[in-house]
Amino acid sequence: MYGDAVARLVGELKALPGVGQRTAERLAFHLVQAPPERARALARALQDVSESVRPCRVCFNVTDQDPCRLCSDPGRDAGLLCVVERPQDVLALERVGGFRGRYHVLLGAVSLLDGVAAEDLTIAPLVARVKQGGVREVLLATNPTFDGDATALHLQAALAPLGVRLTRLARGLPIGGSLELASKAILTEALERRQAFPAAQE
Amino acid sequence: MYGDAVARLVGELKALPGVGQRTAERLAFHLVQAPPERARALARALQDVSESVRPCRVCFNVTDQDPCRLCSDPGRDAGLLCVVERPQDVLALERVGGFRGRYHVLLGAVSLLDGVAAEDLTIAPLVARVKQGGVREVLLATNPTFDGDATALHLQAALAPLGVRLTRLARGLPIGGSLELASKAILTEALERRQAFPAAQE
To answer: Quick check: B23 and A18 CB within 8 A?
Structure first.
């Protein structure tokens, strides 16, 4: 009705996660009515990304230089590896700041539901990195979900034989939350993992 | 942190309506991790739209041919013009089907808040269309909002001297709604515009 070009744009936008027919149409009509430079700038940014962005050959994070900025930074502790599911997780942790080790991106989590097996993740290259030596600690920073925990168990099985120290992100009540609104699973874990107060020195 | 290309894509996506930093990052990471053909196909669709899509010179609807398909369709009644605010509104009405007249897109609504005056809309070309003759009825299909109603009043002032019949979309309780959930404004209008039952023949 509004022409093939707009229909194709709506189709491409609809293929994005979380974008339905209505949102795709709203975005397409916005771009169609905006100055054409806007659509062109977005097209160029997409083209650039499709040409220049690759997974880092060391950590599998998203990067336009290989190895990536984080793997090439001599100021970061190569002895401490933080293993996350997705590039977004690296971003979340870097936004917080404070972590000065390096990363390893699994590119997913094992999932029965989505049919993702441990072999589909970058576990073999992680084991190879640890085997190369120089890694003291691997922080398993998978999501606190069923799939994330299952993935952590796979990682433990793969890494424990190498004698490296394994840790994971602390679990319990989220700061700023309330007992009243915490789910049963959160409260159960907070009870089971209750900590000495005042905190004991490790 | 993840490279200039991704950062620029996030920036361009964030400029879209309803897309914040988080959503822009989620979309960008999705595109970065998808096969590069996906980003390229979206880039191409955007490029095509920026090159081929223009406002129709007759009705100002979005189109890739000029005059647009609706204005060029001899099967549509040129004597009945439906005036809407935006191209999306044409889409909404065409989706319903049943309307066999033609359209005129104002490209906005008068708005004190957004600083849009009647002169910013395509009212002058609409008046010129009606003056050319052949139009019996103009259906004012602006949104049932403060700005839409103000726009309808402007249209009335501009078109009434031409002796054309002016109508507007019916107002009242939305079908499928409930009295309990209808706002005070909806109920007030439904009361004030109460209709004979059974409906009188016009």
So the answer is: yes
Tokens (6 digits) for A171: 């679990």
CA distance A126 to A59: 8
Is residue B104 a contact partner of residue B142, using CB atoms and an 8 Å limit? Answer: no
Interface contact flag, A39 B26, Cβ < 8 Å:
no
Using pLDDT thresholds of 50, 70 and 90, give the confidence band for residue B202: low
- A63·B2 Cβ contact <8 A: yes
Positive or negative, the CA dihedral A61, A62, A64, A69 is negative
Contacts of A86 in chain B (CB under 8 A): 29, 33
- For B136-174, the pLDDT digits (tens) are 999 999 999 999 999 999 999 999 999 999 998 888 888
Domain B62-168 belongs in CATH node 3.40.50.20: no
Residue A124, classed as helix, strand or coil, is helix
Domain definitions of chain A by residue range:
62-168
Could you tell me the pTM of the whole model? Answer: 0.74
What is the predicted ipTM?
0.75
Kindly identify which residue of chain B lies nearest to residue A10, measuring between CA atoms: B45
Q: Which residue from B minimizes the CA distance to A6?
A: B49
